[in-house]
Here is the input.
Amino acid sequence: MTDPSVPGVMHLDLDAFFAAVEQRDKPSLRGKPVVVGGTGGRGVVSTASYEARVFGIGSAMPTARARRLCPNAAYLAGRFEAYREVSRQVMDLAHELSPLVEPLSLDEAFVDLAAAHPGLDVEAARTVAADFRAAVRARTGLTVSVGVAASKLVAKIASDLRKPDALVVVPPAEQEALLAPMSVRTIPGVGVVTGDRLVRVGLKTIGALAAADEAELVRMLGRAHGTALLAFARGVDPRPVVAEREAKSVSAEETFAVDLTDRRDLAERLRRMADRVAARLAAAGLSGRTVTVKVRRYDFSTLNRSRTLPHATSSAREIAQNAGDLLDAVDVADGVRLLGVGVSGLSEFSQIDLLAELEPEPQDTDTTEDEPLESPQPYGPPAAPGWRPGQDVQHTGFGPGWVQGSGAGRVTVRFEGPHTPVGRIRTFRDDDPDLTPAGPPVFDPEHP
DNA sequence: TCTGGGGTCCTAGGACCC
DNA sequence: TCTGGGGTCCTAGGACCC
Here is the structure.
């Protein structure tokens, strides 16, 4: 439980995280608009650099629209291995402040400062947070915005207040005055639907919401949401910082470049996604009882079908079998744009797994490999050997670089890294044997 | 403008049990 | 013959977050 009189909760939020890592590792992109996200026809923007935001580009926007707004930005597919590594470094630095760190995503976390700093006051909190920001910058080369307050709610709002590269400490005594004039949409958990509902009944600001009638809110938003929101508006948020939350579900899904109608295609893709889910379950030592299939149709309507087994499983075959049965009962004739598989109701191990270890299940490897699918065509771009924009590569003659673009049998590479000047570009045949995929470049904090 | 992929939490109704 | 109340599990859908 957090003490409402002590500024003991810190929220950290890396600035334009994915785009910032790209600019760090690719000198030619520094100071330029960079957009990371889906680069295909149905992709959306994951992160836009601040230079790209000037053009009106933002998260969740269709990449096609972003391209119209700023055709000259760099559009990159993302390098999650690199992002995970930077995230791990930042979370390690957070753990030096307190053992209680609650990651919300790769680029965000809460830290319970009070748990490690008895007698914390506003000045001490500011010093701790400032030192942390400097440490992140030195270790990763990135800027992080930080909010410190008496609760998760206010710390999170604070970290967003003066982004990027900002530190905002909200003294508990000033909290109410800060929140009152803010839009209800500022509250995490109030999205488009809830926001519109509140505004429609005249509740535009947090101050107005604080004076609302609880029964009315509960009628409008449901028990949990109604009561929580009223408490938040009144500055009441006792949620503790919780480290190590256990996963509740594992899933994989894919949006196709072109809607699919062929059941054999769909079943095959479902099976491959089941393989990925099973592999991730196994890696985490988990298994689950409920298998879910998600289908998004041509018109974006989405349905889920689930089935709970009498036992927990992490078997790719069993997940695929059940998912396939569920899919068989769904009408796909009009076209499916997205298909997904998930497993929930997780537990740490299962009898079946223990038995399987003694007597391994047949690993039908001949069909689980990612061979090209049979009927090749209407799946969108011709299956180029898979050079993705932004990808790290190595050339036997030119050294490390990254893919700037590919197509028509060619791939263009820029040869540079986090500690080089802006590099030169060269174009190769896309099957050039001298060119190979590479891991992320190493960022050296000691480099001058 | 035409909407990703990975998640979390909540609600509501029906089955089933005591 | 008609009718209880509460609890748990399951399924489906939806809002929201990064």
Residues 37-38, 40, 42-46, 60-65, 68, 105, 189, 222-225, 245, 247-255, 300, 338, 340, 342 of chain A lie near DNA strand B (CB under 10 Å from a C1'). Confidence is low (pLDDT under 50) at residues 359-384 of chain A. The longest strand of chain A covers residues 249-260. Chain A has four domains: 1-172, 180-233, 249-368, 392-437.
